[in-house]
Specification:
α3 (59-71) crosses α4 (84-96). The strands form two sheets. Strands 5-6-7-2-8-9-1-10 form an eight-stranded mixed β-sheet, sandwiched between helices. Strands 3-4 form a two-stranded antiparallel sheet. The chain is globular, with a radius of gyration of 21 Å. With 299 residues, it is an alpha/beta fold. It is built from ten helices and ten strands.
Length: 299
């Protein structure tokens, strides 16, 4: 056990002792539901993207949480606008109370720090409202989140969230990482984004933690596409627009997108890895099977 991990564990124990001894103490830690759906009802349901009204957790969202906790290494290829990132953040939030307690979590999004930090802001908002746990005790934001900066956040139990841009030199985490969450993993703007994966994957070696990659497809390229096609240890889940049809995605919205010539509907909404729309040449032109058909010349 590392010194950093030991210190966090000790701080957690001391916090428990302080709460037990405190005359105003209610309980040591919040008692949360086992059910992902009930947990979200406790902290506050996600808003509907159009009406902004609280919206229940749907079956496909509950499925993503279950698969993360059952299989730990997960690739999700998904439609736009189905709340996949929100679901993943809420799954992480629930685990921060128990399975991730005392460990570090890494959020990676975009190629710039402020893009990753926006993901942390979304996560932080999950705890802005006071909630009542299963013991009937009320918990405010300051009870749950003890430290917050633009790029990190710490829970009462020592669980810490850190954000990083998708640049290899920034992705060397601590030895205490229990979860790595990559958002829009197929859209990192690098010629060779495999270096991002290679820098991140060893971070969970000591904890055998969760490694979750979420993305809409982005052509037949990049480490996300490669992992999806390879035989490997990842659980591969596809959630096309149909899982949320009539729920978060209206019939009229989907009809409009199908008729929009500016987008690749099959890729953006139906989980298909098609050729990148901005590619100068079709991917198949340079497939390995056809290379022998071309003669290399020196210019």
């Amino acid at each position: 056990m590392t010194a950093e991990k030991t210190t966090k564990r000790l701080e957690h124990v001391l916090q428990k002792i302080h709460r037990v001894k405190s005359p105003s103490s209610q309980t040591s830690d919040p008692k949360i539901p086992i059910s992902f759906m009930e947990f979200n009802e406790m902290i506050g349901l996600p808003p509907h993207p159009k009406t902004k009204m609280p919206t229940k957790i749907f079956d496909y969202q509950n499925e993503l949480d279950r698969i993360i906790n059952d299989y730990h290494k997960v690739l999700l290829t998904k439609s736009r606008k189905i709340g996949a990132t929100e679901t993943a953040l809420r799954s992480v939030a629930k685990n921060c109370f128990e399975r991730y307690a005392g460990y570090d979590v890494m959020f990676i999004a975009g190629n710039r720090q402020r893009q990753a930090d926006r993901l942390l802001t979304r996560f932080d908002k999950l705890f802005w409202n006071e909630f009542t746990d299963l013991n009937g005790f009320k918990w405010s934001y300051s009870d749950i989140i003890t430290k917050k900066s633009s790029s990190s956040l710490e829970f009462f139990n020592g669980t810490t969230i850190h954000t990083f841009p998708a640049t290899p030199e920034a992705l060397r985490g601590s030895e205490n990482v229990i979860c790595v969450l990559l958002d829009e993993a197929a859209h990192f703007k690098l010629l060779d984004d495999r270096v991002v994966y290679d820098a991140l994957e060893p971070n969970i070696a000591n904890t055998e933690g969760d490694f979750v990659c979420i993305s809409t497809p982005n052509g037949k390229r990049g480490f996300f596409y490669d992992l999806w096609c390879e035989q490997n240890e990842y659980y591969k889940l596809a959630q096309p627009y149909t899982v949320s049809y009539g729920l978060l995605l209206s019939e009229s919205y989907i009809a409009m997108k199908k008729n929009d010539a500016r987008i690749d509907f099959e890729q953006e909404f139906n989980c298909q890895f098609t050729a990148s729309r901005n590619a100068a040449f079709p991917v198949e032109l340079f497939a390995d099977a056809t290379l022998e058909d071309y003669e290399l010349v020196n210019i």
